[in-house]
Amino acid sequence: MGEFVRVARVDEVAPGQGKLVEVDGRYIALFNVDGQFYAVDDECTHAAASLSEGFVEGTIVECPLHGGQFDLRTGEAVWSPAVIPVATYAVRVEGDDVLVDPEPRQPGHGG
Ligand code: FES
C-alpha cells in the first residue's frame, strides 16, 4: 500500500457524480455513491473512454461510450462489452478531504 494523496474536497463530487483526478501520473475516476467514495482507473478497459464521465447507478458505473458497466466496489466488469475489470484504488475521507492510495488494489487492464 502506498501513500494516500489528497485528490479532492468532499463537496467537489456530488452524490451520483464522478470526477477525474490525477495522482502520480495516473488518471483516476473518483465517484461519490451516497456519500461513500470509490476510485477506479478512469480509462475504460474496453476502449478509450473516460469512466468519470459515465453514468452512476448505485455502485455501478456505465461507460459513456458503449455502455459497458463496472462495479465500483470491486472493479468487476458486469455488463458487456466490458469484460476486463478496471483497477480500483483505496479511498479515505479525512475531514473535508478525499484521499486516494495511487497503488491499485488489484490490476485492471492486464497489469
Ligand atoms: S469504451 Fe467503455 S464500453 Fe466501450
Structure overview:
The chain has a single domain (5-100), classed as 3-layer Sandwich (Rieske Iron-sulfur Protein). The chain has no helices and eleven strands. 0% of the residues lie in helices and 42% in strands. The strands form three sheets. Strands 2-3-4-9 form a four-stranded antiparallel beta sheet, with no helix packed on it. It has 111 residues and is mostly beta strands. The chain is globular, with a radius of gyration of 13 Å. The chain has strands at 5-9, 18-23, 26-33, 36-41, 55-57, 60-62, 69-71, 77-79, 88-89, 91-94, 97-100. Strand 10 (91-94) and strand 11 form a beta hairpin. The relative contact order is 0.24. The structure holds FE2/S2 (inorganic) cluster. Residues 44, 46-47, 49, 63, 65-66, 68, 81-82 line the site of FE2/S2 (inorganic) cluster.
Q: What's the gist of this structure?
A:
This protein is mainly β and 111 residues long. It contains no helices and eleven strands.
Per-chain topology:
Blueprint (H helix, E strand, L loop, with lengths): L4 E5 L8 E6 L2 E8 L2 E6 L13 E3 L2 E3 L6 E3 L5 E3 L8 E2 L1 E4 L2 E4 L11
Bound molecules: FE2/S2 (inorganic) cluster (FES).
